[in-house]
Each structure stands twice: as structure tokens, then as C-alpha cells.
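Write out this protein's structure.
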Amino acid sequence: MKYLLYFSFFMIWACQTPKTNIPSSALPALDSAFVASHTHYFQLTPEGFTGEGAQTLEQAVRAAQILVLGETHGSPTLSRFVEKLAPMLRTNGFRHFACEIGPHSAQYLEQLTTVPENIPANLAAFYEQYQFEAIADVPMPFFELQEDAAFLQALRREGFSIWGLDQEYFSSVFFLLDWLQRQLKPEDVPTALHQAAVATIRKWMIQEDQDDEGFPVFERILQEPAVKAYFSALEAHSPEAQALLHDLKISWDIYDRYRGGASHGDRVQYIRNNFQQQYDRRGTPKVFVKIGRLHASKVESGGELDLGELTHTLASEAGLESINIAVWNRYYRTEEGVVIDWLEKRNRYYCQNLPLILQARKDAFALIDLRPIREAVANGQVAPPESERLQALLDGFDYELLLPTDYAGTPLVKP
């Protein structure tokens, strides 16, 4: 999907437990065998979870005020996991679902999913109507698979609200403007103004997509007379439009400056602010967060303190816990049925977390409790990891969830 912004993360934060003075070379290694002693396995069933790891998972959910799932984007296996997790979340007091879409997109999604039984059909119709085929883009990321619809259906059946934390997605402008237009009287904002603005925006987006170098497309869109005239008319007749267009312009500015990470800090701050506002407005509720792993760490990410650090701080200040889980997948089954081992295909990347990745199984979820491992390193009971990436995982997360064999998933709308 176009323009999803990813940035490197993980930076060591100081453990406050005193370390021994034993040279690290004399300490037992932080190896696969040691990690295996803190790894718990479970599987999915129609009723939920089974296996020894199911109890460990429930303990983590029960302990959390905020549960942050640092996801691998586009994983249908993870979506199936969340579908079965929904009743457990509800039982343990969770009522809010925060995700990596814009706040206005979240409001739209809530309306689209009011009746849980209609969610798969409504989402399919939405994606079919607003698929931006000219640039091969979706109107809203992370919900375009049947498996995604199923997990969202499960959460909505359990009464979850939806919080949008991120910028409004690149191609969301079309359904958002249509949504605004439907709320207005034609005599207030003529349909012709709407159509001219949408056509202009579409033209520029296609042109930018075809440009090898790319350019700040939204800056040019906002200079167009048709867009100026339509936005002015909207703002004059609708307070809702004023709020949406204000946030849309923030999102567009972030997109225009994304090259080289120039807007990363602004994006992170926008995510944090949106979460903080929702959290404060509801009086510190229990929240389930599903967001990219790079945003979920409790330590510095891409040079910024990201959402995972905020949830950790908010919970800690209240004497509560933010439980942050990093999600990884080692195995992937292609459409031809061939199982790929990412440890072999992407060895340089995956091998940096080798003691953790080796716990993966093709037919079961592995939940690794990182807290005792982190404590053992801090106390000098095992040698610190040689990999900075592994140390950052230990410092930034409480658990690692390794998925069983993943796959492409089933689109709601056929390509």
C-alpha cells in the first residue's frame, strides 16, 4: 500500500536493577535454550485458545491497563488471533480499540460497522466503491481482508469503540469528502463543486504516482482553484467539515514531507496526541491497541518517543501496566503452497533476534515472556545480547508473539 511510513526503531533504556561485575564472557549465554524456558505455546480453536500458552496470554491481558500489539502489517494469521482475543479482552474490561488509521476514518468505520452481522458485506462494498485502481491503492489500510473483517466483527460484537490515531490515509480523501457532502444540502455546497474538486485531486494523485521522483502532491492540490473553492464552501457551512479539513491538511503535510523521514517526528506526535485526547476524554479506560511494531516499543523509535512509550508512561503514572507485545512471523506459505522460512531468506535481519526467532513453530503460536529474560540480563545472570536489535526488543517489549505459518489472506474484493 502506498506511502505507509516505516521508520527504524529500538534504542536501549537503562534497567535500574544493579548488575553484577562478572565479565560478560564468563556469564551463561542468552541463547535459544534459555529463551525456550520462557516460551509458551498455544493454538487457535473455534472456541478460542488451547495449550499451555493460553494461560500465559490471559495473564498478560488481565494485567494490562493498555494492551499494545505491535503488529506485522497485513497478517491474516494475526487477524485470526485478534478475532479469538476479542472475548478475552471484553471479559477483562477492555472496551476501546485503537488502530493505525485517521480519527475521521475511524468515525466512518464505526458507522460502517454498527451492525456486526453486516460488517463483511459493508466492508466489501466500501472497498469495491473506493478502490483507487489507477494507483493500485485502497481507501483505508488494514481492513481489506476477510480475516480483517472477521476480527473487526468480533470486536464490534463485544461492544468496542474504534479510535483512529494516525494521519488520514493517502487515498481516504475520496470517501471522506463524499461522507461530508452527504451531510450537506445541495444548495449549501453544490454537487458540481464537489465533483470538480474530487476530479482535480484524483488527477494530481495519478500524476504523482507516475512520476519517478515524486513531488509534494498535496501542496499542489491545495493551490488548485477547484479545491480551494470547494473547501471554502465546506468550511462555511459545516463545523464537522472544518475539523475534518483541518486534520486532512495536517495529514497531507506529513505525507508531503515524508521523504527522508522529515515528518516522522510530527507523525509520531500526532499519533501520541490523538491517543492522549481519547484516553483523557474517557477517564483512563482499558484500551487495546493494534499498531505497527515500530510504533509499539516503550523505548525510542526512529529518534522519537513513540506511542508505546506514551502508553507505558500513562499506565505507570497511575500505578498500572501497559503490556507491549512485539509480533513476528518466521514462516510464510505462498499461494503455490511453498513454505518460506524468513530466517533463511532474510538472514541478516532475522538472525539478529536469533534466540527468539528459533522458538517459532509452523503449527502454533509462541508467546515469549521477555520480562524475566530482561531481568536476567540486568542482574548479570546471563550475558547481554551481542545484537543491539535484540537488546532493544528486550527493553521495549514485555512479550514477543511468534506467529505460526502466515499466508496472503483472502481479499474482501477480488483484484
